[in-house]
Amino acid sequence: MTPGVGGFVLTPATGLSHPPELAGEAAWLRGALGPATGCLLPPGAGIELRLDPEALPAEGYRLEVTAAGVDLCGGSPAGVFAGLQTLRQLLPTDVFRRGRVRDGAWSMPACLIEDAPAFRWRGVMLDVARHFVPKQDVLRFVDLLAAHRLNVLHLHLTDDQGWRIEVPGWPRLTSVGAWRTASMRGARQHERFDEKPHGGFYTGDDLREIVAYAADRHITVVPEIDLPAHVQAAVAAYPSLGAVPVDGVRTRWGGLSDGVLAPTEEALGFCRDVLAEVCAIFPSRYVCVGGDEVPTGPWERMGHPDPGSLGGWFVAELAKMLAAHGRVVFGWDEVLAGGAAVPSDALIGGWRAEHGTIVAARAGFDVVACPDMSVYFDYRQGDGADEPIPVGPLLTLADVYAFRPVPSVLTAEEGARILGGQAQIWTEHMDSVRRIDYMAFPRMCAFAEAVWSGPGDFAEFTERLTSAHLARLDALGVEYRPLDGPHPWQTRPDAPGFPKSRAEREAELLELTENIRGGTVG
């Protein structure tokens, strides 16, 4: 940023000019600024939006503010939209409110800013299966991603504890599979349950609305249907799909469940129907099928002669189904185990520390880096006794800011396979949007900067966070975690956690990834 003398004052007389290709971005800006400022930005002079794809990268922008006006040029509409987030940040904090709280002029400093992202995949996974997130809260979450220049929302739509998407011809997926009788209260090791029914699901039109709303903000929604394991909710609805019987929609967190698909034509037909509906709703090039944490025990009990091969076989079949729709399979790094026939264009989510990312990149796969030790926002944020439901290793704001999607051990060629990074919000212990806010922010602010700007100075980031950005979150109504620990109402004395040291988790991950680090792939 290059500061200048003077600045620009936004008034009700300020106009907005743009080419037809930027009509959507102009509409967003009017909607974002108008309610708080009273400035409706009619056609005219003052703020000019332009495109120059030859001079700027696709998501890059050049923003110049002078006393005469604002000139914003992007390499594409996505670049202009990224620049609009900066423009909003240059205005007083109250511009982030949804209505006017003060009168007077709205000024921004004179400056010249040229910027572009370090990575093209800047994503957040939101688990809506463990705890259902109502549609209006998902739309709010999309707006928060957009404000932080994040461009992928990965929706984890199904799991053992709930099925959240309607599928034509399979009505019991939502009438039965979307509801459970209870939820665990705190970490699973304590065996406490709240005995309250929980559930919900999205209609096809709900999901189309989310997709369109996100697209208007240059965010791609990547759906995940977890297969062939983590399907206890589906098997509870349709028992004949399962390798073995299950006892209803799962109420427990963690561990491996018996909810695994049987290797039958009926189960494959089910998968075809589900993925066909997913592809009809979501235009994303990638569709995640999970492929993670697949137990072989249920297949052994049903008498299959080679249960160890079935996980890889299922993923290969699912990849073919998606290819028939012109889509590419996305799987977690477990799909690399056991010599699975993973197609060469598959996208791998490297989540078990850096091990999965390194193995996948060296094997020639494109990778999204989402290492749990750096970007799992269900992990505890502090060592204090009042930290709500402290699970996993400590993952502080500084730890997240230090995240680097490309492991240092990779060569330049291998590192080029890393599309970017993704933070993970697993919601076992987040039963409301308030809990999600607490666990995600301000760590998501640190993550967003790490994947947009690359390496930076944490002290300087913290100064900007505390002097300006936390006030923006306040204006947006985000109930973030204070830097010095939770407010009393954010604690959970009724729900005990189960913290681990980083050394304990690192040892677990070394054992869990032995089958992919041992040379079976690549």
From TrEMBL:
<dbReference type="GO" id="GO:0005975">
    <property type="term" value="P:carbohydrate metabolic process"/>
</dbReference>
<dbReference type="GO" id="GO:0030203">
    <property type="term" value="P:glycosaminoglycan metabolic process"/>
</dbReference>
<dbReference type="Pfam" id="PF02838">
    <property type="entry name" value="Glyco_hydro_20b"/>
</dbReference>
<dbReference type="Pfam" id="PF00728">
    <property type="entry name" value="Glyco_hydro_20"/>
</dbReference>
<feature type="domain" description="Glycoside hydrolase family 20 catalytic">
    <location>
        <begin position="119"/>
        <end position="454"/>
    </location>
</feature>
<dbReference type="InterPro" id="IPR015882">
    <property type="entry name" value="HEX_bac_N"/>
</dbReference>
<protein>
    <recommendedName>
        <fullName>beta-N-acetylhexosaminidase</fullName>
        <ecNumber>3.2.1.52</ecNumber>
    </recommendedName>
</protein>
<keyword id="KW-0378">Hydrolase</keyword>
<comment type="similarity">
    <text>Belongs to the glycosyl hydrolase 20 family.</text>
</comment>
<dbReference type="InterPro" id="IPR017853">
    <property type="entry name" value="GH"/>
</dbReference>
<feature type="active site" description="Proton donor">
    <location>
        <position position="293"/>
    </location>
</feature>
<dbReference type="InterPro" id="IPR015883">
    <property type="entry name" value="Glyco_hydro_20_cat"/>
</dbReference>
<dbReference type="GO" id="GO:0004563">
    <property type="term" value="F:beta-N-acetylhexosaminidase activity"/>
</dbReference>
<feature type="domain" description="Beta-hexosaminidase bacterial type N-terminal">
    <location>
        <begin position="4"/>
        <end position="116"/>
    </location>
</feature>
<dbReference type="InterPro" id="IPR025705">
    <property type="entry name" value="Beta_hexosaminidase_sua/sub"/>
</dbReference>
<dbReference type="GO" id="GO:0016020">
    <property type="term" value="C:membrane"/>
</dbReference>
<dbReference type="InterPro" id="IPR029018">
    <property type="entry name" value="Hex-like_dom2"/>
</dbReference>
<keyword id="KW-0326">Glycosidase</keyword>
